[in-house]
Amino acid sequence: MGTLDIKNFPAHGVSDEDVIVRRGRVQNARQRKTRSNAFIRKGESGMIYIIEDDENIRNLVQVALNGSGYETAAFETAEEALGAFKVKAPQLAIFDLMLPGMDGLEAIRKIRANDAWKKLPVLVLTAKDKEYDKVAGLDGGADDYMTNPFSVLELLARVRSLLRRTKEEEPEQPKLFDCGALHLDLETREVKVNGSEVLLTYKEYELLVYLAENQNRVVSRDELLDKLWDWRADVETRTLDIHIKTLRQKLGEEAGHYIKTVRSVGYRFMKPQE
Question: Which of 36, 47, 127, 151 is 20 to 30 A removed from 238 (C-alpha atoms)?
Fold first, then answer.
């Protein structure tokens, strides 16, 4: 591919210019008025994985998504991406089809064959523009299909559409959480241990709920700091340790032991043995 020219590509979100990628080069289309959602808080829109072996395209897509408020992780191969899926699945994946090693279509089939990932929205972004390629991609499990050249504004619109559609299909989250001696009412923010109310601060409650919702999974310190403190410069990692210690003390000996320390990594909320 040619050299990627991003001098006219906005650094923070998409501005008033529609940007089109043609064979690795960014060109400006006709100007049009558009509103950017660049003020979305980091992580609020969920994690998006970009799987693309062309560095220019990969970087462009990542810049566009980051500028519009999405967290992203980029991978050169499908094998790397599927390995990351096992650690933390994204809310959406953007796949090229022509990848070194395992191709994108095979990777999408593996995603659809996994019960934990089969409903994950997948967008194909590729240079393969023949009709039979599009049919094969959609029949192979992709939810949407875009080809080069592509408009960045259209890409962002399709991403929003897929995420919105997925959100609409999500079942209503339970408002109650019971685990052994611990009872959480997610609607009233009430916490009880063996029937007795436990008073938590706002951040202690958020920390407990996040760990409980991810029970049996090791949640890294970095993830907790990112999700609950947004990695503010004034927040030290020691802050997390202090909150965990206080939370355990307030929950008491029985429920406090549900929160396990995974040395050098983070914490895990373990359901008690029945």
Answer: 47
pLDDT at 118 (0 to 100): 84
Spatial distance between the Cα atoms of 151 and 2, rounded to a whole number of angstroms? 17
Cα torsion angle, 2, 77, 134, 14, sign: negative
Which strands sit side by side in the sheet containing 196-197, from one edge to the other?
A: 176-179, 182-185, 190-193, 196-197
How far apart are alpha carbons 185 and 157 in whole angstroms? Answer: 36
In sign, the C-alpha dihedral spanning 42, 44, 47, 48 is negative
Q: Could you give all domains of the chain from N- to C-terminal order, each with its CATH number? A: 17-169 (3.40.50.2300), 176-269 (1.10.10.10)
Q: How many CB atoms lie within 10 A of CB 72?
A: 18
The answer to whether the beta carbons of residues 143 and 122 sit under 8 Å apart is: yes
Pick the closest to residue 43 from 168, 257, 225 (CA basis).
Answer: 225
pTM of full prediction above 0.85: no
- Least confident span in 69-78, 228-237, 249-258: 228-237
Length of the chain: 274
